[in-house]
Amino acid sequence: MSFHFASQLTMPFVEPGETHHPIKPIGSKQCQQVLSHLQSGKPITALEALRLYGIFRLASRIHDLKKNG
């Protein structure tokens, strides 16, 4: 068994302004599902997004939609 100390771990280099997780394109299935739901005039909670669409990270999908316009 080997142990790694925090000082031995490195983060991958990320350019300024980039994120570690790429933004999902607005055409992604999850983004489209959230967008369609909201455009129908209904609010959505994280629990509903998980139950209805299998989306675990609703806030991230909303962030993606905002970033993509």
Main attributes of the structure:
single chain; mainly alpha; 42% helix; 69 residues
Structure report:
The protein has a domain at 24-69. The protein is 42% helix and 0% strand. The chain has 3 helices and no strands.
Kindly summarize this structure in a few lines.
The protein has helices at residues 29-39, 46-53, 58-67. The chain has 69 residues and is an all-alpha fold.
Overall shape: it is globular
Beta-strand content bin: under 5%
The mean pLDDT is: 81
Gyration radius from CA atoms, angstroms: 17 Å
The helix/strand order is HHH
Helix percent band: 40-55%
Total of DSSP H or I helical runs spanning 4+ residues = 3
Task: Look at the helices and sheets and give the structural class.
Answer: mainly alpha
Q: Give a short account of the largest sheet.
A: none
**How many DSSP E strands?**
0
**N-to-C terminal Cα separation, in Å?**
48 Å
Give start-end ranges of low-pLDDT stretches.
Answer: none
Topology:
Elements: H1 29-39, H2 46-53, H3 58-67
Helix pairs in contact: 1-3
